[in-house]
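Let's sit down with a protein and look at its sequence and fold side by side. Which protein we use is up to you, so please pick one and set it down. Label the sequence line and the structure token line clearly, so we can match residues to local backbone shapes. Go ahead whenever you are ready, and we will take it from there:

***
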Amino acid sequence: MKKKVKVRKPSKFSKLVHIVAIIMLVLTPFVVIGTKALISNINFEVEELKNKVSKQEKTNESLNMKINELASLENIQEVAKEYGLEYNNDNIKIVMK
């Protein structure tokens, strides 16, 4: 006499767990690749912004040097002479509060 072996059918919960596990195994590589691509694009944008900031800082430094050059005493005296002005120490008055 042969024994009958009862084969249990997997429960609905068990099927659901297996399906979710398979979906996660299939989708995980795509999510990882997508995340790395997004990070790569963001890093590229950051490098572009760093380059723009560096160029702007150089421009600002150059303009500050130009301002200092134009505000120098020699330049002011030169411009004053062009307009017929002269430096007279006797005309300087000090006003105190």
Summary: Residues 27-86 form one domain. The mean pLDDT is 90.
